[in-house]
Amino acid sequence: MTQVEEFHNANGGHYRCTVKNGKKYGPGKYCYPNGACYDGEWVDDQYTGTGKYTYPNGDVYEGDFVNNMKQGKGKFNSKESGEVYEGEWQADKKTGKGKYSYKNGDNYDGDFVDDLKHGQGVYKFKSGDIYDGEFKKDLFDGQGSYKFSSGDSFTGLFKENQKVKGLMKYSNGDEFDGEYSNNQKVSGKIKFQNGDAYDGPFKDDLPHGRGKANFQNGDKFEGDFLQGKLHGSGTYTTASGDVYEGQFDNNLKNGKGVITYQNGDRFDGEFKQDLKAGQGKLKTKDGEYNGQFVNDKFEGQGKFTYNNLDSYEGQFKNGQKNGQGEYKFQNGDSFKGTWVNDERQKGVYTFSNGDTYDGETVNCKAHGKGTFKSQLGEFTGDFENGQRKKGKMKLDNGEVYEGDYQNDKRHGKGIYRYKNGDVYEGDWVNDLKEGKGKYTTKARDIYEGDFKQGKMHGQGIFKYSSGDIYDGDFLDGLKQGKGKYKYASGAIYEGEWNQDKFHGQGTYKYANGDIYEGQFVDDVKSGFGKLRFGQQTYEGHWKEGRPHGRGKLIGQNGKVDEGNWKQGEFVEEGDVD
Fold first, then answer.
1. Residues 6+ apart with CB under 8 A from 88
2. CATH number of the domain to which 42 belongs
3. In terms of pTM, does the model score above 0.85?
4. Which neighbouring-strand residues pair with 504?
5. Maximum Cα–Cα distance across the chain
6. Residue 50 domain boundaries
7. Weakly modelled stretches of the chain, pLDDT under 50
8. Who's near 545: CB < 8 A, 6+ residues apart?
9. Do residues 278 and 293 make contact, with C-beta atoms less than 8 angstroms apart?
10. Could you tell me which of 3, 28, 415, 455 has the fewest CB atoms within 10 Å of its CB?
């Protein structure tokens, strides 16, 4: 029998519903002492059909029931949290298709199993992030796609809310395709929007371990990474063809390594902060350097061997020869001394023939103070542009020159001391005495006057150690022209000279007062002349120093003998050939 009844039981509960055979059937409302209420359809004393259940805390479920359990479709509202589920239920649990709105603003639309998100679904975060894919036990698990509000997106495999393997696209254009652990990259390929790319292991979301990188400028790297940077050993190849193989630290070449340049150059040595530093060997088209480097340049002690077999061994600074060093030329010459900015300064230059220069240089030439030693002797003094300028030359034969030079020859003022004791002081031109000068012999003969081509030439005075003096003209080292010769004895000749002899017209005053005026030939009276001797006078022709030919003798008493003379004898008339 069916009837509508309303009850109030002893524990405070009450209900009003249809009762059939002592059991609730059909629509009815039942409120529990704890404040919970069910208002809906009943079958055999159980919620079955459509109904609304209000929990003591104010939560509300409205939907399908079967045997006191939520089953079918229904909507659950949590008063406390404000969360809402609307969808399918089974055995009092969210199972099947449904939508869940979380109190934090998140939303889920998809499959449920036993109150958990399980199967296919879309989860939208309040932040704007969206996951679309598979779920297992309330977690992202399986294939799915995650779109971030930032514009980033991941498509691939998830495990327990974490990315496992897939493609990550970043809003800036970067892309990563690979494996994850704890939501961080562990291995894969990443392409950056600037064109750079990396393939290899990761740690803390950064390249870490042995990997490969390709850069947008065409450069390539294969080797070790640490926290996203080149670190350890590896090979770096530039777009131009240069190849570095060695150690890296913080993206920079650091430690030992080898660079092979596309032009054929090769460096094998140490690096610091991406620059050559420490010991190394560099081969170039010019030659080979083996030594120390600082800031990518030769600095410290080193040796450079040129392709032409020249070599320099010594100190370098800022890529140039600086300090003490020795340069050896392939022809056997060498320079050992001080260098500044690749230029020789003060030092010793040794020629292959044994000659040496010890002194200052400018532009690789002797310049300034120095000493030059050769097979001929030793010069000490000033140099200019590789040539002697002024100084003292000691010849191996004992002779010494001190004075000016031009074009590496004696030129200007100078003093020359001969090994025989002679001394010349005066002007020089092209290694020869020329101009004004003074020549003193060991015997104390002195010539002072003009020189030309190394000989007495022009006007001069010759003072003999005997006391004789000549004042007059010279030609090619000999008395020639006009001149005056004073003998220590008191005799004087004044007149014409030829090749160091009286020759031509002249006057000879004897020490005893005799005087000859006339012609001479080779130091001998010859030609026409007048001789006054004692109280007599002879005037006429001479030959070989004696009257010969036509002449007259005027005696002291006035007597005149005039006629022919032969070899100093008066023959009156006749042949005097």
1. 72, 73, 94, 95, 96, 97, 98, 112
2. 2.20.110.10
3. no
4. 520
5. 221
6. 1-80
7. 574-576
8. 524, 525, 526
9. yes
10. 3
